[in-house]
Amino acid sequence: MTRLLYGLAGLGGLLALLEAVPRLGLVDERFLPPASLILSTLGAQLAAPQLWIALGETMGGWALGLAMAFCAAVVAGVVIGIVPGLRALTNSTIEFLRPIPSVALVPLATLLFGPSLGSTLMLVVYAAFWQVLIQVLYGVAAVDAVAYDTARSYGLSAWSRVRHLVWPTALPYVMTGLRLAAAVAFILAVTAELVIGSPGLGAEIQVAQSSGAVPTVYALIVVAGVVGIAVNAAVRLLERRVLAWHPAVRSEVAA
Questions:
Q1: 8 Å CB contact between 98 and 134
Q2: CB 182 within 8 A of CB 232
Q3: pLDDT digits over 100-138, tens only?
Q4: How far apart (Å, rounded) are the C-alpha atoms in residues 201 and 187?
Q5: CB-CB contact of 56 with 67 (8 Å)
Q6: Where are the alpha helices (DSSP H) in the chain?
Q7: What's the CA gap between 72 and 65, in Å, rounded?
Q8: What is the pLDDT of residues 171-207, one digit of tens each?
Q9: Predicted pLDDT of residue 253
């Protein structure tokens, strides 16, 4: 309860500051409208169906791209982790591709798909894939070697070893990767729409900026921020449900 009150107090302070700065003439209102004007514009936007259509397109691209990246990264990470020699063989390739920023692929995505959902998916999948893959590799590497050798000596098949030994050990790492990837995927989805012009919330921000509707720009940015918080909260809730048996999650819930 105290934490919630502190959070509300901080939000109220920020709104008061955003109201006072342009009113006092410290910043031109043409570039930073007062908070009251931004909130009233936000209310009008929330009543318009165009915002919800754009938001649905953004969340659709985010969810589809995240799902594709998650499935591909989990399969690739488990295979690379359990096949002897494959980790060393792919390590240099992974370390080369992983640091490449997804925004560097904007020209390629534009060339291949134009301002469409395909461009958004390309950037989202690329960014989210590495977040999950690295965590899966860490998780597979954390499997107890003695337990793995024992399972193999008792004749457990490769699938049984993955199902009963590798997956339970790697699952906390997988959920961490999913949480990181979800946030990155949402950022890249909005970025793709903003830069390339793919349909969605980012494209609406770009249109508002081009038409000089500054309060609408800020209102849509607020929407993007709230959605980002909701995405993070939803993934954390899923993580707690999936890892309810894990000691770290149980102690966190108890605290």
A1: yes
A2: yes
A3: 998 899 999 999 998 889 999 999 999 999 999 999 999
A4: 11
A5: no
A6: 2-23, 35-46, 49-82, 86-97, 106-113, 117-141, 145-153, 158-161, 167-196, 201-210, 214-242, 247-254
A7: 11
A8: 999 999 999 999 999 999 999 999 998 889 999 999 9
A9: 55
